[in-house]
Amino acid sequence: MEKTSVIIPRIETPEHRPLWQQLLAQGIRSSDELLALLEVDPAELETPPPGGDFPLRVPRSFVNRMTRGDSHDPLLLQVLPTAAESVQSPGYHSDPLGELRAMPVPGLLHKYRGRALLTVTGACAIHCRYCFRRHFPYSDANPVTAGMQESLRYLRQQVDIHEIILSGGDPLTLNDARLQSLTEQLAGVPQLQTLRIHTRLPVVLPERVDQGLLEWIARQSLQVVIVVHCNHPNEIDPSVSKALQRLRSTGATLLNQSVLLHGINDAAATLIRLSESLFAAGVLPYYLHLLDKVQGAAHFAVDPDSAREILATMRAALPGYLVPRLVRDIPGQPGKTPL
């Protein structure tokens, strides 16, 4: 089969919002539309029942990186709902990391010594089918909507917390004004030294990295670490490379975390290409996660022994700084557990 990328045209709108917000709103939300654009016959797939509480969502620019006619495209498999998600798998849970037990105030997770995490939004540009927060109760656990004062009081009381992590959802779905307001409030917590941002937007919607965002990052008094999420080298096209390089130009440290996914990136050659592509764009590989055991994602799991073999091959082929740490997140442990 000829590997030909499909070009999904942008929808022209008269809106005066920033381009990235328009493109975010224009994301594909229908399996039928997505498969039609890719010229994939639904008969080749196990399609899910209608509805569901975790619908499809994917930016058109991300779809542009998929291969027309390929029902096994590694980017398509990350976003397309399938019937396998309805299978109830033993050992898989709606809260696989025990986050609700580590939430002293709404939307603030304090799992590890020295750092805390804020789930500042439930919104994402893309709905990854393996997402460990696909069942997370964002409406009840959002520090922004619930009021930041409770979170700020907690942070001030925990004098050993030196790093605050913005997560979600994806924090970069917030506009620049809301991000600025949020970090101005966090600036009142004297012991904070590092601002870490967990985001997939620079990869799936690189237009988000505009001048306003770059200026917001550059204004921060805290040291900024940006952890992007990229699983496959095909996700990195020239627009993504440029966006990542622009982020790096602000002085922020750029790291990547990936999830090891069956049938998508569970091959050493794929992950070697990913590490090399990330480094060329100014990003260091950081973590390679075993799948978090969230209900509905068991079909993506890779067994630990296979994961170790993949990592051993990567170590033999790459300099150490391009080999991510293979880890598993185990509830109740003081940090990520290396394998």
Topology:
Layout: E1 4-5, H1 19-25, H2 31-38, H3 60-63, E2 67-68, H4 76-79, E3 108-112, E4 115-119, H5 143-146, H6 148-157, E5 163-167, H7 176-186, E6 194-199, H8 201-204, H9 211-219, E7 223-229, H10 238-248, E8 253-259, H11 268-280, E9 284-289, H12 304-317, E10 325-328, E11 337-338
Parallel strand pairs: 4-5, 5-6, 6-7, 7-8, 8-9, 9-10
Antiparallel strand pairs: 1-2, 3-4, 10-11
Largest beta sheet: strand ordering: 3-4-5-6-7-8-9-10-11
CATH architecture of the largest domain: Alpha-Beta Barrel
Q: What is the SS-derived class? A: alpha/beta
By DSSP, the count of extended strands is 11
Could you spell the SSE succession in H and E letters?
A: EHHHEHEEHHEHEHHEHEHEHEE
Mean pLDDT: 92
Main beta sheet: strand number and arrangement?
9 strands, mixed
CATH superfamily of the largest domain: Aldolase class I
The percent range for strand residues is 15-25%
Low-confidence stretches: none
Helix content: 25-40%
CATH class of the largest domain: Alpha Beta
